[in-house]
Amino acid sequence: QVQLVESGGGLVQTGDSLRLSCAAAGITFSNYAMGWFRQAPGKERDFLAAIDWNGGATYYADSVKGRFTISRDNAKNTVYLQMNSLQPEDTAVYYCAPNSRYGTLVGFGPWGQGTQVTVSS
Questions:
Q1: Which listed residue, 28, 79, 80, 117, has the most CB atoms within 10 A of its CB?
Q2: Distance set, CA 121 to CA 76, 85, 88 (Å)
Q3: What HEC string does 55-73 produce?
């Protein structure tokens, strides 16, 4: 059974940074691309960033390009999201998910419980 546990969220002020972590179990982690998404109240889940199986390639949504950085440590079965210059509009629940393919927005899942990020103005 695949388990994904996101952590590292919290309440921060505008301009602060956070580093989210997502620990995966139940999959051969190094065989999967990984992605980060977020969902704000009343909105759909949005793609943020993805990384290929060994960290050699990444891509980002325009909304976070230059502020967020995705990385992974296959030895720890963990993917990270470094978030800088946080803004109130970044407030959301953040999720990670695996994908057997890199370079597509289709096929991510399953999902963890997410971690809440709240940015105060």
A1: 79
A2: 35, 12, 6
A3: CCCEEECCCCCCCEEEEEE
Strand partners, 99: 33
Burial of 1 (0-12, 13-18, 19+ CB in 10 A): exposed
CA gap 60, 71 in Å, rounded: 12
Indicate if the pLDDT at residue 50 is higher than 90. yes
